[in-house]
Automatic annotation (TrEMBL):
Lineage, opening ranks: Eukaryota, Metazoa, Chordata, Craniata, Vertebrata
UniProt entry tagged with the keyword Signal: no
Molecular functions per Gene Ontology: RNA binding
Keywords carried by this UniProt record: Repeat
Name recorded for this polypeptide: NOP9 protein
Native source species: Heliornis fulica
GO biological process: endonucleolytic cleavage in 5'-ETS of tricistronic rRNA transcript (SSU-rRNA, 5.8S rRNA, LSU-rRNA); endonucleolytic cleavage in ITS1 to separate SSU-rRNA from 5.8S rRNA and LSU-rRNA from tricistronic rRNA transcript (SSU-rRNA, 5.8S rRNA, LSU-rRNA); endonucleolytic cleavage to generate mature 5'-end of SSU-rRNA from (SSU-rRNA, 5.8S rRNA, LSU-rRNA); ribosomal small subunit export from nucleus
One GO CC term on file: nucleolus
Length: 163
């Protein structure tokens, strides 16, 4: 019932943020409950459909912002791996992908970069530069990924690679 009205969704988003900032253990429990409710077990397409929905995507983005590395890794591998091109090119879902990249652990960013790399020109041509910005921004946190991120950035901008 709390997921339906837009105001309830907004309240849940704010509750997640407040609990996260207060470092309350209730944040993890609420996040897990929301993810469990929004993404039924065995439904691999639920996250993509949720990210494409204008109302649910906001709540999913808020959950991803506080989820933690292991939960984000699980969400990526169970629901998004192999589907990033469609998510990156979707007018609403690309924002959820950006939030995932903003908070993802190194191995998830590396896998996402490998999957998105060949299709980033298409994503940019559809008017979603935030995906590239989030991907490159997430690589700032992980020095091991920075060289590949620079190569990818130069490739997308059609600049010759540095010698």
């Amino acid at each position: 019932a709390l997921l339906s009205p837009a105001s309830a969704s907004l309240c849940l988003q704010v509750a997640l943020q407040a609990l996260h900032h207060s470092q309350s253990p209730a944040c993890s429990r609420l996040c897990q409950a929301l993810i469990g409710c929004l993404l039924p077990e065995g439904d691999e397409g639920a996250l993509v459909r949720g990210l494409e929905d204008p109302e649910l995507s906001r709540l999913l983005e808020a959950a991803m912002a506080v989820a933690g590395a292991n939960r984000l890794r699980d969400l990526y591998r169970r629901h998004l791996k192999g589907r990033l091109r469609g998510v990156a090119n979707h007018r609403v879902a690309n924002h959820g992908l950006q939030r995932l990249l903003d908070h993802a652990p190194c191995d998830v960013v590396d896998e996402a970069m490998a999957e998105l790399g060949p299709t980033l020109s298409e994503t940019l041509s559809r008017g979603h530069p935030g995906v590239l910005t989030a991907l490159i921004g997430s690589c700032r946190r992980y020095p091991a990924l920075q060289q590949e991120a620079l190569r990818l950035l130069l490739q997308v901008s059609h600049a010759p690679p540095p010698s």
